[in-house]
Amino acid sequence: MSKKRYCVWVLAACLLGSAACKKLELGPSYQDTDLTFWNNPEAAAKALNNCYAGMYSDEYYFFNESLSDNALCSSSVNGGGARSIAEGAYDGRTNRVAGEWSYHFGGIRNCNNLLNNIDKVPGLDEGLKNRYIAEARFIRAFHYFQLMTWYGDVPLIENEISYEESFAIGRTPRAEILNYILQELDAVAAVLPLKQEYSEADKGRITRGAAAAVKAKVLLYESRWDEVAAICEQFMNGNVYGAYSLFPDYAGIFEPENENNSEVILDMQFVPVYRTHAMQRFFIPYTEGTLITGMAPSQELVDDYVMANGKGIREAGSGYNESTPFQHRDPRLEATIIHDGSSFVTKKGDTVTIRTAPGTGDNAVDKSDASHTGYYFRKYYDRTADGNNNSGLNLVLVRYTDILLMYAEAKTMLGQMDAAVWDKTIQAIRQRAGFTDPAALNFTNYANLGTTGMMNLVRRERRCEFALESQRVFDIRRWRIAETVMNGILHGMKVGNSYLEADTRVFNPGKHYLWPVPQADIDMNKNLLPNNPGW
Amino acid sequence: MGYGTQKRTSLTGAVSVVSAKELDGKPVTSAVQALQGAAPNLIIQQNVTEPGAAASINVRGVSTVNNTSPLILVDGVPGSLELINPKDIESISVLKDAASSAIYGSRAANGVILVTTRTGKLNKVPRVTYSGFAGWQQPTFLVSPLSGVDYMQLKNEALVNSGQRAQFSPEQIRRQGEKGSEKWWMDEVMKPAALQHNHNLGVTGGMGKVAYLVSGGYMDQNSLYRGPGYGYQRYNFRTNLSAQLGKLKLAGNFAYAKQDIREHAYFSDWLVSTALRIPRIYPIKDSAGNYFLAPTASNNPLAQLEKGGLRKYSNGSYNYMASAAYALTSHLSAKLVYGADIRDNNMDEFRKSIDYTPYSGSDNQSARTVNHARSVQDNFQALLNYEQSFGKLHNVKALLGYATEGWKNEYRQKRQINVDNETGDSTAGTSTLTGFNDTYDTRVDRWALNSVFGRLNYSYSDKYFFEFNFRYDESSRFAKGHRGAFFPSFSAAWRITDEPFMAGIRERVGDLKLRGSWGQLGNQQILSNYGYLNIYTTVNNMYGFNNLPQPGASFAVGNPIITWESASSANIGFDLSMLNNRLTISYDYFRKVTNDILLQLTAPGLYGATPAYQNAGRVKNQGFEVAVNYRVKTGAFQHTIGANLADNLNEIVDFKGRTYLQEGDVTYINKEGFPISSYYGLQADGFYQNLDDIKNSPKSTFVNQVKPGDIKYVDRNQDGVIDNNDRFVMGNPFPRYTFGFNYAVNWNGFDASIFIQGVGKRNVYLRGEGVEAFHNNWDNVYAQHIDRWTPNNPDADYPRLTIGTESVNNGANSTFWLFNAAYARLKNVQLGYTLPASLTGKVNIEKCRIYLTGQNLLTVTGMNVGLDPEVTEFNNSLNLNQLSSASSGRIYPVQKVWAVGLDINF
Prior knowledge:
The complex is a heterodimer.
Chain A: H1 3-19, E1 32-33, H2 34-37, H3 43-53, H4 58-63, E2 71-73, H5 82-86, H6 95-117, H7 126-151, H8 174-189, H9 208-221, H10 225-236, E3 264-268, H11 286-289, E4 295-297, H12 299-304, H13 331-336, E5 337-338, E6 342-345, E7 351-354, E8 376-377, E9 395-399, H14 400-413, H15 419-433, H16 438-441, H17 450-465, H18 472-478, H19 482-485, E10 488-495, E11 498-505, H20 519-524
Antiparallel strand pairs in A: 2-4, 3-9, 5-8, 6-7, 10-11
Helix pairs in contact in A: 3-6, 3-7, 6-7, 7-8, 7-9, 8-9, 9-10, 10-14, 14-15, 14-17
Chain B: E1 15-19, H1 31-35, E2 42-45, E3 56-59, E4 71-74, E5 77-78, E6 89-95, H2 98-101, E7 112-117, E8 127-139, H3 148-161, H4 170-179, H5 185-189, E9 194-207, E10 210-222, E11 231-245, E12 248-263, H6 268-277, H7 301-307, E13 309-327, E14 332-351, E15 367-390, E16 394-417, E17 431-432, E18 440-460, E19 464-475, E20 484-494, H8 503-508, E21 510-523, E22 535-545, E23 548-556, E24 565-578, E25 583-599, E26 614-634, E27 637-654, E28 660-662, E29 668-670, E30 678-681, E31 684-687, H9 691-695, E32 699-700, E33 711-713, E34 721-722, E35 728-731, E36 736-747, E37 750-761, E38 763-765, H10 808-811, E39 818-820, E40 823-834, H11 837-840, E41 847-861, E42 895-905
Parallel strand pairs in B: 4-7, 32-34
Antiparallel strand pairs in B: 1-6, 2-3, 4-5, 6-7, 8-9, 8-42, 9-10, 10-11, 11-12, 12-13, 13-14, 14-15, 15-16, 16-17, 16-18, 18-19, 19-20, 20-21, 21-24, 22-23, 24-25, 25-26, 26-27, 27-36, 28-29, 29-30, 30-35, 31-33, 36-37, 37-40, 38-39, 40-41, 41-42
Helix pairs in contact in B: 3-4
């Protein structure tokens, strides 16, 4: 064969080959890359929505209750090991302890990513851009508030840190984190719109009121009573933070038809079908939750609800009768808790009586997958949830009642509780809850309690008002009463002559007021040492 | 060998060949299952044995944490061992070292499996073959449930041990004893036996200048689950054509395979875990015939099987290969090959709402998921082959090639809830779920590779052999500037006994060939096709305001400078042939170091994201393979014995000094100096025997109190307390010392064979309800827990029974739950008879063999806790992001199969 034919063949082969040569610049058809994403005018809104979605966890929100004396987590796996934490048997590897840390730093990175890139977004209105920035900074500050509360000193990260930096960064003293949070909240409050300034479609966004209310809460956790009172007064006596008022129906605050009601200051927004949480299955009656009842109210919580006359059940003249324990009680008890004999409307619309006494069926306390205390939660039960209990019900993080109770607490601690403060706070809250007995409503009956007595009254009011709203665990820790209420037996309903012993809790005050920095982070970054005291 | 063929005598690399004969007669559903144990260091693990599930394949173990699947080529084109009809296979070559696989450089780092299919022969009369078998599969349960009364007593004991009240009164226990135990739920959800049969018909021959093979196959494996017609069917069709037209040789292969899988609409691990853990005091249906819901379950597995709907897979596969070769001169030829592998996969899952009245159960929402995926992997090659001898002694062969390969996957999905519970159609109340992974229109993913490669062979006097290979690849998985990589390899062989000075040895011992090779291979198969880019994913309902869903975008961090992993691999070996080739021994030793492993190195939680891939690790893997074959005739008996043994052990050499711990029910560690994904935990040291024992032992920091009968741990760092710092690397989850043994004998038309396969060493960490009594407050407790610690039984196997948080001490990650899963399995036994040709010849039958065959008949293992020793939570890649729950016993049981078969050749 001639050399010429050779070459023809070789050439032909090469031509065919190069014709079939594959292109190597490939990207996904359904995702964006760094280069394309920020060129999109919608990019800022989309990235911000991601920050909103990661602001707080529905699982933490509910299972926080079982980290307190309000509820029992009956399973060793639900709630990230909430039961073990309540029993003092946990460490830096426990899911919740390790997970909460990563959760917040993940949320912080999302905010930082938006803040670093928002200038690239074309055609973004300056006002809108400033608002987006303020919303993201608020969410970041909220993460730091949570981190500081659980872990004390934490790394302060205001940028998208590199992989290498994450192995070197140390912890910033708690006091600096606190200042940072307060400054950030002040800064964003100046930019954020008031609730009523947002359009209908923007309901649920972070407002100036939310920034101020969270700031009040941060200060409350620091016992900075003067400053707490000052912020609360601005809420109560004017409109600088927006128009808020008590919603007339206590139970209605938590029902789907009343989402975004007049009392909501900050919440996690959910949308039926499209963005849902499935948490209620853990705490509503087993027959309606249909999976293991992971969390149940304690007898201690039930017992702390006062009588309709305002007296504690063990107080002289309360009229409490142990054989009819649910009669003449604070109306919020029935609105919050389901007990043996409670009436309940199923998702299908049938009104049934829930029986929890031993031997009474699927909801009974002796059925191993049912409530181990004989109680269920009613609050936050969403009848419109789907068959698998996926619910679109918003979860409230701060509501106006909190402003009132923060005010009441601050004034009490300042020794300034008087009839005027009482009437605007405790009385208003109790009236709204459905109390009618003047004995429970009028300050004159409580004027002689003294600071400690009044403090205990306000604390109990908080507990009952906010049960299942992710408040109690933080309250018992800031009040430094966890070592008392979280040590020993947690009880369930009365069976026979005694109350069920549902759990044994352990709280070591030298150690458990702060969680440890997660073991995995300590393993990789020695600059996080020393770990918190006792860990 | 790659892009050509080579005589065994001139091979310089490490190659194992499995012939069709070794696959014959095994009642398996895929070629992969038949290959288990057939070649040394071809490691096949069946972690799921449900009909239609794929087994995992490794060659020479694991040397990266990324994809470790070998490259599988059917007639030179990417294909699948699961889909191919085993009866179409002529031979399978496993290319193990760098020299033999280097020509596939880019994707050969994990070895290459070459499947050659049968072809017809020119000028032969048509030969028709039928082969088939039919038989029964039976589940092999290894866990033994307790009687109802035993369960009640042990539950009471566990509760009391845990400071709780006993659940069952003496009266209840007495009544249960009178009533007897209910049937075990596993027996209620599984049939005692299920049918499996397989039929193949093929014609080969030649007509004029065309040689052909046409074959069809049908395989039907019924599921062991009760319920409406669950099972797996596969249809295969193949036609292989080749034509010699003067200097031009044309060939075209086409294979079609269809898989139809019908299974229940749930996850088998959940379904099995429920069935496993219900004690025998509860019937699966109550006296009124309602599906019963036991106290620790909100669903009923039998109801899910019988009333819960159906998941259907309908998968079509089209495998094409067309080639044209032209002899340009007597020494030089050119060849063009085009191949394509097209997969058309469809899934339709319809989960029905189950009404558990009068009980309250979950499963009360109907849902339908339908998805389609179509992938095309195509491949074009242009090759030039040169071959010439100079004088009598010098032989030269050369190959130069170009290849381009691409993969494109188009897929879409729809998920709806509250569909019509009978038809699955949408109705008034139906909602379409719009999450990122719920419903989406067509999405496209791709990758592509362009390569040039070449090979040079030189041999002198058929005594010295040299080979050089190279390949240059560019991959779309990396950014421009980091795409290309060059992979060379060298190898040599020396038939030493052909030397005059070895003549005496040759006479007395036999032929000996020494081989050696070194080469580099690449790997680019990381999980992400676009790992070099920051990826933003938009989700339609990321958040919502005022009950209107809002789109949001999450991001994943990319790394623009990632590039190829490269594995340097050295191999030495020998082939010894004695007794006139009746005894052959092959041995290979290999050492492979993979550099620049693409890792998502772990980051502290405060990093706030999943770290990007980086070329960060180095893993060493070494081992050996030995294979012995012996044929002998004693009288009228013809014996064949084959045995193989192999080992591989990987070690992380460089991990940038980092340690990665994946904490959880099982804790894994990646750390320099230890195998990939090792188990990590405390060292168990018997049980606390009494209070003094507890007082005199180091105190545990993670529990408030231990009691006699609890597991005691070793204070390895001797700081006086038992805590996380006492943990150590306790085991390697990858099989070592894998072996296969077969013996076959023929006598006057009768034949018998046995095949044994096994693993000499493997650690498996078992967890969950399969091994832990009363795991997670459930009711599971088995016969193996009877021997638990009590003051009267201090030498127990199992600690004192506890439940709930009382189990925290004993449930800690420790060697107590670590087992050696070594086993030997009687994989196959056959007994056959071939009718005398004198008889069958009269009816024009060339050969007729009937046989009885059994699969998985017997397993010997030291792991006596009721789980199959082959269970592993890993797939073939030891990747910690892809773990299954198999190691907690939540698996479809391994089947034992008995079948009769028939082979007829006309």
